[in-house]
Amino acid sequence: MAWLVPADLVLQQAAWWSAVLLAVHGRPLAGGAACLAPVLLHLAFRPGERPRLLRAALVAAAYGLATDTALAAAGLESYAGAREVSPAWMVGLWAIFGVQLTASLRTVAGWPLPALALLGALAGPLAYRGGVALGAITLAGPLAFASVAAQWAVGLPLLAWVSRSRSLAQYLERFRRGQMNVVVPGSAGRARRALLAPLALLAGGCATARPPMPTVARVDLTSFSGDWFVIAHIPASLEKNAFNAVESYRVARDGTIETTYTFRDGGFEGERKRYTPRGFVRDHSTNATWGMQFVWPLRMEYLVILLDEERGVTVIGRTDRDYVWIMARTPEIPEEELARLVAFVGERGYDVTRLRRVPQRWPERG
């Protein structure tokens, strides 16, 4: 369900190394072309968001081109493949960053603008140092680093605002329609996310430091098989407008988990979507840690963090606290049961204000 985020991170890292090394070896245009893969991935698999993705990529590319060129013209920077103008590979990396703010860096994009400005001022120069170490960028002393800090202190809040503007409108519209009615006070969860959110921005950013996500002690895969109705979730982009969402599991002969995820897109009469990833059990002592594979060889983390067979409910989470799925054996559960599950999710470090109640209506089951 959320395979796009790990794919985004893998391709970003591959694109950064490819762009920098190609530029250092005298092929800056090829380096720019290498940056297309992460952008094209999102355009291909997020068709409903293409206008916003293109806007994020183009604004980021334009901002990077203008500011890096200005710094180069002032003699503060120079780049492999160009001396007085920002080269194609740098522009491409900015475009990737703009798109990442809608996916793997979406949590960062949601920060308050002053916090983003401070983060940009600190992380921007660190990101450029990676290029300096490999000989792709030259910075002319402390003034150049200070200029990059100012560039990012302005750029990060601007690009974050561009990346999330449409999402905010959609949030308000869903709230107006009463579709986002699973909201519990989550200030503690938000504070925890703010402290633990990634400091990974661009150019081989640092890995995220997250506390472990505890799983249940044991999952009986046979009993766990069957249909689970998604009651509420912090959704991946592909399922953000899901209605009648159902996840189904079946243990295959080779021990993998055949998974089918179906939902109606945008309404009860919307287009029926169907995805068939495969789960790979990573920890056979508990059967609670899986790798969910949508596209070979990428496998997203999938953790069974709550399972109550008697009540017929389960919660699937991730260490990054980016996505979560509250599911039940029935399309509806009592409100007090849902409140208990939402509180549990908040205790595990999620921002529960991001939860979306999944509309479920099955007249034929009545």
Overall structural domain count: 2
Cα end-to-end separation = 28 Å
Beta-strand level of the residues, as a percent range?
15-25%
Number of helices: 11
Overall pLDDT: 80
Write up what this structure looks like.
This protein has 366 residues and is an alpha+beta fold. The strands form two sheets. It has an eight-stranded antiparallel β-barrel. It has a two-stranded antiparallel sheet with strand order 1-2. The two termini are 28 Å apart. The protein folds into two domains: 4-187, no CATH class; 221-365, Calycin beta-barrel core domain (Lipocalin, Beta Barrel), CATH 2.40.128. Helix 1 packs antiparallel against helix 2 (28-34), helix 2 (28-34) runs parallel beside helix 5 (88-100) and helix 4 packs across helix 5 (88-100). Helices cover 45% and strands 20% of the residues. It has eleven helices and twelve strands. Residues 166-209 have low confidence and may be disordered.
Which helices and strands occur, and which strands form pairs?
Blueprint: H1 4-24, H2 28-34, H3 36-45, H4 50-73, E1 77-79, H5 88-100, H6 106-109, H7 113-133, E2 137-139, H8 142-177, H9 187-196, H10 221-224, E3 226-234, E4 242-251, E5 257-265, E6 271-275, E7 278-281, E8 289-295, E9 298-308, E10 313-317, E11 324-328, H11 335-347, E12 356-357
Antiparallel strand pairs: 1-2, 3-4, 3-11, 3-12, 4-5, 5-6, 5-7, 7-8, 8-9, 9-10, 10-11
